[in-house]
Fold this protein.
Amino acid sequence: MRKSAGFFLTAILTISFAESVFAQVAPFQPVSKIDSATPEKSVTKHTVTIEGKLIHYTATAGTIVLKNEKDDSVALFGFTAYVKDGETEMGNRPVTFAYNGGPGSSSMWLHMGALGPRVVVTNDPGITPASPYKTVDNAHSILDVTDLVMIDPVGTGLSHPIAKATVKDFWGVDQDIKSVSQFIKQYITANDRWNSPKYLLGESYGTMRSAGVSDYLFENMGIEVNGVILVSSVLDFHTLTFKDDLTYELYLPTYAAVSWYHHKIPNTPAGLEAFLKEVRTFASGDYAVALGKGDMLSDAEKDQVLTKLSAYTGLSKDYWNKANLRVREEAFTEELLRNDHLTVGRLDARYKGINQDLLSEYSRDDPQSTQISPAYIASFMNYFYTELKVNKNLNYKINAYTTEGFKWDFSRKKDGDNAGLYIPNTGEDLASLMSKNPNVKILVLNGYFDLATPFYATEYSFDHLGIEKKIKSNITMKYFEAGHMMYVKPASLILFKKAVADFIQGISQ
């Protein structure tokens, strides 16, 4: 196996959800640029009706000076905080720290898609027309049950290094975990939230971050989180690399779900969940055995497996045969609707786009990303600078990918292992936390049509945490008939809010 940082950077960037379009979109350019070590904040008052109840809240958007463990100033760290007004016992009021992934993404997507008090309207799962875009009050924001702090890691949002620090101090698995943890500690100190119930909510690479941050806070700062919410989770990147047979097995149930959605399966089963249970059994059984036999697989055995693969995915036996039973994600998205001159989305395979090269082997475009990103970017920028009244000379970076020299350090240095670990797995961190803090609860939200972080790979990772059986009940899995950003589907946003609210209220009350 090739072990290079470049390889894993490529792997992880292809995981990013709507962030993947960022490199194609010019970043917002302010009239002039402020590049100093002086923090700025904008504080505004608002109201929003959530689940039928009027909520008064204070929004604070800007930066703080981040200090490292030596108390040196190392960054201006950007955030947007929403705090419900009128709460007299802040020790009883939960606070949730949330972020997206990438790595290299700002928190804009969760901010304007699910959690914050304002939400972008898109034509899910179709093409959203060009501006003017519509932004409305989010009747399903989580602000009614928890205060909210949207975090933008260094290189995104308003966050950037200062003094002697450089991006290398922040752009890496361990570096990122440390800096986000330091921000959380500083925030709860500055805002008297040490005794508040605390939650982490991350999406995609943000779930890898959350697993690491939750353990780092406990081990190094004595901060115990009450719960961790993982949205479209990836803890072990080995499950997504397609470098051995395991990845093919773990992707198969999602292929089947996507084919089911697009009615490409003969005699399409009525119930998705029962169908996927059958596919899971095949993936971990006959399919895994066949892949394991390699060249020793007989023709008769191979034909039986080919028949099943075709029946479960709608791809022809001939295609599966030519692929030697192994179809990568980017090949699947291109092949499924090839005869319709279409390709399907990777982040959300409900989305369809025009296939301009019918002979192409791999898809080069993600329809969901390209179809919703302009609406999110324009709506967020308008909201950030007009409603939250942030200084327009401050340049909010949607992502770090446009920064020259962006490169993520995937090596890890744990327990004195100076050799590092090039395929990161923060499932180990989460298992460590759950063993030391057996009261912590974990909520995992999965999209059936998510080809970036497939649900069966998530299940596999959690089945291999190696934790005691008595604390496995602390983990709750929820599923949505949607994709990576399941909340862009209006019906799923309602279910998303209910799952998160029930989780937090069930612990905090």
Summary: Residues 287 and 293 are 10 Å apart (CA to CA).
